[in-house]
UniProtKB/TrEMBL annotation:
Name of this protein: Glutamine synthetase
Domain GS catalytic: 156-587
Coiled-coil segments: none
GO terms under biological process: glutamine biosynthetic process
Gene3D superfamilies tied to this protein: 1.20.120.1560, Glutamine synthetase/guanido kinase, catalytic domain
Amino acid sequence: MKHVSDYFGSLVFDDRVMKARLSSEVYQSLKKTIDEGAKLDLSVANAVATAMKDWAIANGATHYTHWFQPLTGITAEKHDSFITPAPDGRVIMEFSGSELIKGEPDASSFPSGGLRATFEARGYTAWDPTSYAFIKGKTLCIPTAFCSYAGEALDKKTPLLRSMEALNRQALRILRLFGNDHVKCVRTSVGPEQEYFLVDREMYEKRRDLIFTGRTLFGAKPPKGQELDDHYFGAIKPTVAAFMEDLNEELWKLGILAKTEHNEVAPAQHELAPIYTTTNIATDHNQLTMEIMQKVAARHGLVCLLHEKPFAGVNGSGKHNNWSISTDEGVNLLSPGETPHDNAQFLLFLCAVIKAVDDYQDLLRISVATAGNDLRLGAQEAPPAIVSIFLGDELNAVLESLENDTPYCGVKKTKMKLGVDVLPKFTKDNTDRNRTSPFAFTGNKFEFRMVGSADSIACANIMLNSAVAESLRVYADYLEQAPDFQSALQEMLKNTIKEHKRIIFNGNGYDDAWIQEATLKRGLSNYPSTPDCVPHILDRKNVELLTGQKIYTEPELRARYEIVLENYCKSIVIEANTMVDMAEKEILPAITAYAMELAKTAAAKKVLNEQITCAFECERVKTLSALTDEIALKIQELKKSLISLKSTETVCEESAFIRDQVLVKMRELRVPCDEAETITARKYWPFPTYGELLFGV
Ligand code: ADP
Ligand code: MG
């Protein structure tokens, strides 16, 4: 029996390996770079590179790659082998410090949103020493940032690191005001809960929609759905259990803290949650987790679907981004403290988040905008597209008393005078957790639930970190000038609550009445789709925030705007083309063949005996023929809309046209196809149904 503790992190060039394989000077100097961002000189890099290479070779690696996260949302790698020819005709294995620090992948095929003209196609990758190198297969993977030659970020890691730095800068200013001089750095941590579906590989391969788009574009509701709620936390099937066991082992070897796994609400849906860690590492790990899930599934005759909405009418998949802020001493700044002093500080950070989420609700919505996620947000299962915060009754009451200078009626009456009163102990009641809120406080962290299952968590955390950094900056600017810290603080938080309490909502986010209240009464923004929200990334206040906090330059921001919309358009055009293809080449012929069989049967019966009525056959053939006519018509309409799409000029127009025309035609085509499925003999239907995919029957 292998013990987990024996192989956990065995494929990671982590602190333990570094300590063992580097001289103590090199180790100290690398550590300084990792912990404090100190510059690394080439001699140190050379020593690290050699140690890394020797360790990698000892663990079976032959190649290395700079592993990065271009704006496609997945990870990219270009492998180089370690071999270098030796004069005697043999090879030696080499890897230098400069190869470790910098790489030059041919970047022309990665999206750049116009940031990099093709004639200067090359970009470069730069080592991120804060995220450990690891071995995947036979390749040493070095986590890197990806930039253009002019230094513009072409990836998701660079802005994420910048946003962490921004938050660190501002949070330290606040901590100093509270007399906290020993804290060296403040970081955000994330634990992303990943949802996914597992389906049988053979069935998957029979569905071109799943292969090309990751979701089903057709499919009638099966007789049984998720009505019985019998899958949630239900017993895990043996095939799935074997998959999970194998997956855990792979993840553990990579030092990924896979912790919890369970069945989710929908049939065939599951969830994996790691133990939280520093945000950029959590992001790298989540990317790796998604990749490895797919690889391991293949070994078990399964396919892992990460799409946000693989099946209509069945719950979709998201990623709950559990987020907190803590110091290098391990103090969680979002945890209510034991002393009045701690509590004042806690309330400040809490209010900073409330202000940030209200001021930049649109950016949070934008950070999770994809074609796939649009299908999930707003359905009655995922948080709505409207951003709001759930605090829970107790914390809500505390804020109310702070706002109104009234006593807080908790277990013991306390007046919420900051720095004097102790916060009441909150009961962390798990049964009362609000599952419908997009942004919920869960005791000592916030859970942002709008992130899509297939998406990188980088964007959500970039926006979150940046927005909170901005609240903290405003607070610090004010408090640093204040003659009396305590009273200024009290006044400032009171104002925050007054100004921003509209974002706090403890009710049911799935309720239609909430949409009315949120938009009409509270003036919160509601952007149901990607084309609705993404253009707002260029709103003045958002550009000011993101350039002011040095997260993006304006050209970088414009590039992202282009890429997100382009991505949206491309994925839906692929879906539309796949629908046309499947409807024309599979669905229409199947229905026609079945109708033909019925017609032949009726004719044969009539030959046998004129008196046989054949009412069923006749009626069914009539219905099926009407449906095929309808399908053919809808195919034409969809094709027409795709042709018109070509005459749109900007990506903004294109995405709006897709939202208003193409998607409508796609939905219209699906209706008669799904109806035909319900009345076509099973053996004629050209691909596995929802029942077969979800229940194996
Ligand atoms: P659930 O939300 O399912 O009840 P938990 O609250 O225990 O489960 O944890 C969910 C996720 O939140 C896990 O990935 C966990 O590591 C993460 N998490 C727990 N505490 C924190 C924290 N302080 N900061 C960030 N993430 C956290
Ligand atoms: Mg959760």
